[in-house]
Structures are given as structure tokens and as C-alpha cells.
Amino acid sequence: MLPLKSRLFFRSWSVVGQTCRSVFVAGASCQKSALKTSTQDIPEMPPCDFKPEEFKGMSKERMLEIRQQNCFPMTMKVTFYKKPVFIHQGHMQWLWDVDGKRYLDLFAGVATVSVGHSHPKVTAAAERQLKRLWHTTNIYVYPTLHEYCEKLASNLPEPLKVVYLTNSGSEANDLAVMLARLHTGNFDVITFRGSYHGGSPQSTGLVSNHSYKYPVATSLGCTNTMCPDVFRGIWGGSHCRDSPVQTIRECSCAQGHCMAKDQYISQLRETFATSVPSRIAAFFGEPIQGVGGAVQYPKNYLKEAFELVRERGGLCIADEVQTGFGRTGSHMWGFQSHGVIPDIVTMAKGIANGFPMGAIVTTPEIAASFNKAVHFNTFGGNPVASAIASSVLDTVKEDGLQKNSLDVGTHLMTELAKLRDKYEIIGDVRGKGLMIGVEMVKDKASRDPLSPEVMSEIFEDVKDMGVLIGKGGIYGQTFRIKPPMCVTMDDADFFVAVFNKAVHNCMERRVR
What phi and psi, each to the nearest 5 degrees, are found at residue 478? Predict the structure, then answer.
């Protein structure tokens, strides 16, 4: 980590009642501030040569009026921050608001901007295709669709070689459920508590998080089993998970044997014995839970779970919507870290760097079950989407982004773990590559979730110092760090300094 003096700089100013034109806060110009005299040690943002366009559009006040009057109320409900960020432009790992303030984006539009905002290679591919052909459907044969399907399939192990392209991860998971039921002739599907698999009516049935549950019937036949969370769950220890940082819980396991894994597998067996028929359609699992808060399972848990599912006639489905395309660093796909090969893989988000797209990849035998009727998707895999997604795959390899995810992510987690050891309210640091969670607690002994109010204070403070992160977990107690995979070591150090400052500020407020 960089020495403190090289990461921090100090400013004093008195600009009450006047416009600040020359002061810089976290690498961004201060826009019409009315700040009282103060001295703050604010982490210095890494430099960026890119110059955004000047914003000349609608006022912030008018945008909020439209958001409140013409957008669904849900849009306001999910708006981040008490003082919202009005985004204007992006470049690689950076975002600028309408006032010209720069932010380090460590959330990537919810783990979606995989290779970087407006990445030049991907932008060029989109422009070339837009000049040639915007849209046709797969009732016709066009090159970009087939070039991409072949390229995507080549990045997956045998026998996962058959691709169906969709518009989103929710749609991909919807179709995966239907495909599993068609192929097996069974109906019931098992998911983890805390899981998130989409917002459509059927995929909502797979979700096990009250915040996303409406008081209406969703997909029937979905059963939740205990999530093998080795930090917050009933069982856990200090050697359980495939992460550069382990939990603070003591481990009583014998050498080479995971007691927590065995206990959670016994809970899955109990679910089979009590909650579903003897034959099931599928088991859904994210290799690392996303919305659930970057939750990781004990080593070898998924391997044993897959065996139990297949014994009962079910298909094993890996939801790679957030973990895919090199984000976990060690492998292209999250499931590879678990030593398993699923029957179906679903993906979206980073697949096209933010362009609406999703996919199912499965075996020829399972794919043939779709022929029992006709399913048609107007936009899935259209020429522009296919061209962009193809460029994303190329860019991940050409820019070395999978390795960068591993290197930067491991460094970032290691430094965050030092803050965990420093502060009582940081309970856990976990993840792989650039799929990271920092779970906040009232205290380490109880592991009770930090209150939403205190979480929001830290969240706002981090944003005000120039970094955008996410939140997740069943109780909203986990900060989610899932940036574009082009972030650098300097960016990681900057965030650690910002987070340290924000948590320090929070602790000082608690003392008062």
C-alpha cells in the first residue's frame, strides 16, 4: 500500500457565500460550494488524462422533477444516496457528474461494466456494426450472431457448447427454469436463502430476499435452503472459503476436513427430505452471491451439492450473471473455482459491458428439450448486441483483465482486511478477484448487522470523497465492490484510504 503521505493531501479553505473555482477535492473541482472553514485530510484521487465534455443539458432540479412525476415511484425508491449523483459521462473506471466532479466507479452499474465505461475497442465495434446493420432477428442467418456464439462456446468446457441469447439475466434465468422442467419432467427448484436471480415474475420466485418480494404469487415450486455462509451462518471457520481473506471465526476442523461444509450439506439433505418431492427439476446457485453480499461457500460444498441434486434427477444451474467473464480472477467462470461443471450456465451484465444482453449455455441434449414448442426472442443476439459482446470477450483477453482482476482484487482485499482488524464495525472482508464484499457489524462478537442509518452515513461519506460502491446483504449490511476490471493498484489504494477515512469518521461520531 502507498505510504500515507503520498495518498493524502490537506486543504483549508473559506468559501462561504462565494464560488470555489480553484480548490480540488478528491481530484475534482468544487462546484459552487458554500463550505465552512475546515481542515480535512482527504485522500488524493489518482490522476486521469481523459477530459469529459461539458454538460449543457437539463438542470438537476428538472431531472428530479421528472424522476418523481413521470417515472415509477420505484425509481425514486432505488435512487442511491440522500444527495443523488447525476451522472453525465464515463471513461474506463471513471464517471463524471453534471458538475464535472470525477468519481472512481467501484460498482460498475451493479457489476455490469466489465471492461470499462465507453472502452475504445468496444465502442469502435459498436460503431462499425451500427453503420452496417442495426437489427434483424434470428429467423435470419447473420454473421455476428454465429461468430459470437462460437466464440462464447469456446470459452466454456465440454459439454457446455449450445448457446441461446437473451436480453437480460432475469430472462436467462426464467428460461433456465423452464428448460430444466422440460428436460427433467420434474417441477421443483431449490435456491439458497439470500439469493437473487432476477426481477421478472418467474425469476422472482427464485429470489430469497424479502426486499425483492411482492405480496403476490410468483413462480410456484421454488424452495429455499440454508445458505452456507461461513461468516454469518451457524457454522464457519478460518479455513473454509476460496478467498485470499478468511473469516475471523475460530476453526475447530481437523486437518483437510471442513466441519462447516458437512453441516451445511446436512441441511441440504434435510431440505430434500422435508420440503421437495423425491425428484426435482433444478438447483440454482451463484458461485458467489451477488446481491446477497458477496457470500462465499465452504470449499467443496457445491461439488457435493451437485451430486445430491443429480441423484434426485435435477439439473445444476450456475448463475454467472455477476461472477462471469473473468471477474473472479482465477478463472473465466465462477463455477470453475468450485471444481464443478453445471448442466446450464446463465449469464448477463458484463457479457456486453452494459449493453442489454444475456445468455444460456447448456448441452446439446438439454437444449433439444426446447424443441417441444416454439420460443422466439425478437431482440436476443441482434447484430449490435452480438458485435459488442464479441468485442468484450476479445478485450478481456487482449487487456489481460482476468489477471488484473486477480491481482488488484487480491491486493484490495488484503488491504481491506487490515482495516477489518483495525475497526470493530468491519466484520468480514471476502471475495475473489473483483467480486468483493465488506460486511459491517455492530461488533465482532455478536456479528449483528450494522444499522441502516450508520451504513448510509459511511456510504455517503465514501461518495462525497469521490468513490461509488454498492450495498447488499439480507439486511443491507454489506458494502459491495465490483468495479470495471480495468481498475489499477493505485485506484485500490485510493479506495482503501477513502474507506479508512469514512469508517474513522463514523467511529468518531459514535464516540461523541
Answer: -120, 130
